[in-house]
Each structure stands twice: as structure tokens, then as C-alpha cells.
Write a sequence for this structure.
């Protein structure tokens, strides 16, 4: 079984093995291989690389938006459209949900049902509130004649914010799946690895939102 | 206490397992992150509308605050730290950031120059008036 893990590039381990402190510990705890990193560390590393590629995707959309900010074609600009109180509520929802997601990870690691299910439910409610507010914001803008087809600025805006909103929606579905999987299969090692990936995904979405609310909404309404 | 359970290491990397004794400590880590992130967010929202500072500096201040808050999220929520077991995660992030910087600043640089160089003649004349 350790042979399969050995085929991972040696660098993946980092200091993972040295810090666990002795092979005997590792093997006793989580079916650890003799050499190389634990599966948990390798999975987190691989998923982290995917997340970085996702960040690069967002940076391309963001570059498009930054280039087209002033291309309003005589239509409304960010200053006319963005409402900071709404953005503040969205930000609070996502920040709190990311903290609850962290709590859920702790709950799963120590196998405390109340902490795990409670935190996952709170994460879901806050994330769903975020999506609902964003959809309402989009609907209001489209009704006011400021839909994605109005100007290049608005096309880029809807693409960027909408892509983040789609990620959050996909994250909500993944969250429900993880609750169901833990309910049906328990806190198995593979389920907890999936949960770790979900937590990394959710935290990364909040990091992207930090860039969006600061550089799209706040810079958009700031005086020049 | 059975010796095969690893000691608490203070900081918890993505690959680590927690024991029941580590729970308050781990929760406190998230709460510290929440406090710092809230503080930075409030400052950002305040700065965006304030008249206290020189106006053209506001976008730069907002960018710096955003970078700081992303750092807080990376350390307290994603646990990407400078620890020896995190070298690969940090290296991957550094490479990702290089690409992001090239993409965003490269696009802005090229497109702004292009915008200037292929400006319609009337606008160019307006600017020179």
C-alpha cells in the first residue's frame, strides 16, 4: 500500500513526515505510509493547486473588469449602481460563514456531532443568504436597465461577480453533500479529506470576495 | 497518557489532526482571525467614504487593506503559514500570485497604452486643447 503513495513526487511531503515525529506514530494513527507525506497532506496540496488555478481564473476576469471600468457607453457607472450597505451585509454573511466552516472542520476532526452539524447548518444559511442578496442585487440592476448587455463595464461586472456567485452556489451544494455523507458514512478518513477540501474551497471563496468588495465595490464608489 | 498521540503543535496545518484537547485553541484561532478580518473590513468601508484623507490615495489604501485581509484569511482560516510543513503550499501560492500579478498589471498596462495610442482623433484634440 505504501508503494502507491511512493509514486508521488518526493517534494510533496514538505516536512510533513518529520513534524508528525516518528513513523510508528504515523502508522498507528492514520494508515500512514512508511515514506512520503500522509494522504491527507497530499490531498490538501493537490486541491490547493486547483484553488490557485481558480484564483488565476478570477484574476483574468478581474483584469477584464479593471480594463473596462470606464467603458460605460454613456450608461450608469459603479458610483450610480453600487449600494454599500448591501455589500456590507454580504461581506458579513460570507465572513461569518467562513468562520463557521472552520468550526465544522474542528467538529469533524474531534467527531462532535453538535459542533459539526450546527456549524455546517450555520455556514449553509449564511452562504444562502449571501446568494439571495446577490441575486436580488442583480435583479434590481437588470430591472433598472443596467443589465449585462447595457455596457462593457456591466458585462465585465456581471461576469466577475456572477462567477463568484456561481462558485458559492456550487459550494452550497457541496456543503449539503458533505452533511449527507457524514450522516450516512460517519467520520471516515476519506470523508474527512473531502471535508478538508470543502473547507479550503469555502475559505478561498471568501478571500476572493475580499478582493471583490474592496476593489470592485469600494473603489467603485470612492471619489477620484 | 498514551505516547502515540502527538502533542499539540500550537499551529494547525491543513494536514493535521486535532485531539479533543485542542478544540478551544483551534476555535480561538478562528475567532482571532474573525476579529482581525472584521477590523480590516470596517476600516475599508470607512475609508471608501471618508473625506479625511487625500482622495486619490483611497484606491491604494483600499488595495493595501484588501491585501492585508487576504493575508489574515490565509494564515488564520487556510492555515497557510511559514512552517516547515507548509513550504509546498506557500511555493504554489507564490507562483499563483506571480501569474495573477502578471495577468492583472500586464492587462492594465497594455490596455491603457493601447487606449491612449489608438484614441479617436477628436478625443486626442480635446485633450491637447
Amino acid at each position: 500500500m505504501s508503494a502507491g503513495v511512493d509514486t508521488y513526487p518526493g517534494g510533496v511531503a514538505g516536512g510533513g513526515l518529520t513534524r508528525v515525529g516518528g513513523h510508528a506514530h504515523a502508522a498507528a494513527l492514520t494508515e500512514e505510509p512508511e515514506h512520503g507525506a500522509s494522504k491527507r497532506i497530499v490531498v490538501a496540496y493537490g486541491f490547493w493547486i486547483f484553488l490557485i488555478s481558480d484564483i488565476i481564473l478570477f484574476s483574468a476576469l478581474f483584469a477584464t473588469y479593471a480594463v473596462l471600468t470606464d467603458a460605460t457607453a454613456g450608461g450608469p457607472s459603479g458610483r450610480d449602481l453600487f449600494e454599500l450597505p448591501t455589500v456590507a451585509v454580504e461581506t458579513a454573511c460570507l465572513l461569518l460563514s467562513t468562520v463557521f466552516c472552520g468550526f465544522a472542520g474542528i467538529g469533524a476532526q474531534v467527531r462532535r456531532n453538535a459542533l459539526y452539524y450546527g456549524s455546517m447548518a450555520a455556514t449553509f444559511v449564511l452562504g444562502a443568504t449571501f446568494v439571495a442578496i446577490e441575486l436580488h442585487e442583480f435583479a434590481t440592476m437588470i430591472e433598472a436597465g443596467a443589465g449585462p448587455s447595457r455596457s462593457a463595464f456591466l458585462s465585465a461586472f456581471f461576469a466577475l461577480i456572477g462567477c463568484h456567485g456561481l462558485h458559492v452556489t456550487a459550494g452550497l451544494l457541496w456543503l449539503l453533500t458533505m452533511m449527507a455523507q457524514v450522516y450516512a458514512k460517519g467520520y471516515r478518513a476519506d470523508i474527512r479529506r473531502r471535508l478538508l477540501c470543502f473547507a479550503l474551497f469555502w475559505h478561498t471563496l471568501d478571500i476572493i470576495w475580499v478582493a471583490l468588495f474592496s476593489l470592485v465595490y469600494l473603489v467603485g464608489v470612492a471619489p477620484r | 497518557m498514551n505516547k502515540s498521540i502527538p502533542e499539540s503543535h500550537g499551529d494547525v496545518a491543513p494536514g493535521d489532526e486535532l485531539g479533543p484537547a485542542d478544540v478551544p485553541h483551534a476555535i480561538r484561532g478562528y475567532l482571532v482571525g474573525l476579529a482581525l478580518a472584521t477590523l480590516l473590513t470596517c476600516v475599508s468601508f470607512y475609508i471608501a467614504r471618508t473625506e479625511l484623507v487625500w482622495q486619490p490615495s483611497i484606491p491604494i489604501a483600499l488595495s493595501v487593506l484588501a491585501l492585508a485581509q487576504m493575508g489574515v484569511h490565509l494564515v488564520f482560516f487556510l492555515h497557510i503559514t511559514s512552517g516547515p510543513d507548509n513550504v509546498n503550499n506557500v511555493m504554489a501560492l507564490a507562483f499563483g500570485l506571480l501569474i495573477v500579478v502578471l495577468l492583472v498589471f500586464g492587462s492594465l498596462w497594455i490596455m491603457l497604452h493601447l487606449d491612449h495610442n489608438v484614441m479617436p482623433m477628436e478625443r486626442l484634440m480635446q485633450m491637447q486643447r
In short: The mean pLDDT of chain B is 83. The two ends of chain B are 83 Å apart (CA to CA).
